[in-house]
Design goal:
With 232 residues, the chain is an alpha/beta fold. It has twelve helices and eight strands. The structure holds 3-hydroxypyruvic acid (3PY) and magnesium ion.
Amino acid sequence: MTDDVRLGVWAMLGEPRTSAALEAAGFDWVLLDQQHGHFDDAAVRATFALRRERRVPVLVRPVTNRVDVIGRALDAGADGVVVPLVESAAEAEAAVAAAHHPPRGLRSFGPLPGSDQAARPFVGVMVETAAGLAAVDAIARTPDLDLVFVGPFDLAQSLGTTVDDLLADDASDAPLRRILAACRAAGVRAGAFGATEPRARRFLELGFTDVVAALDTSVLAEGAAIAARVRA
Ligand code: 3PY
Ligand code: MG
């Protein structure tokens, strides 16, 4: 596996202590999910308040692509955002602008610690619809964009297929290959929500680099295997 691969853990539970512990667990990045997980703003802030050192980047998936919502996540201390359901170059530019202070962007100044003027935010956008797929070349070329990230569940739903068929599609113009090619041409990172071991492996095999290897819930479930081993 190349050094360029970054395996992430996706936190859904909205549990600050669990999420802070995941930062030290050996993943390359942690994401706090506000769109579908139990992270409200208070849980996001509590997670960052427990942070003693910046071991690995901690990102937030905001509920939506809005300047106020993205600004709040970054003000809380997020190193970056992964913005859901981006369908056009204009929406990708809006996400980048929301994350950057002027002159690059529109992010408002906040005086509390965490709202760090100097830090450059990491910005990812999710391509997870047929419209996003159709616009992926232009999306990937958005200035200051760091990552295009595939949401395979929404993408499969939008394309009328299944996640496993999407992953198995080996055609040169298969949706996942088109996304990867767009990322490579534009020089941005290519990420994907693997979440299970076989899917994470398949995304890596295809060439994606920023892959979710586990959820906080699956980390806990894997821990239960200890009991089975002790019993055996
Ligand atoms: C998707 O697969 O659509 C996701 O957004 C993963 O959380
Ligand atoms: Mg999705």
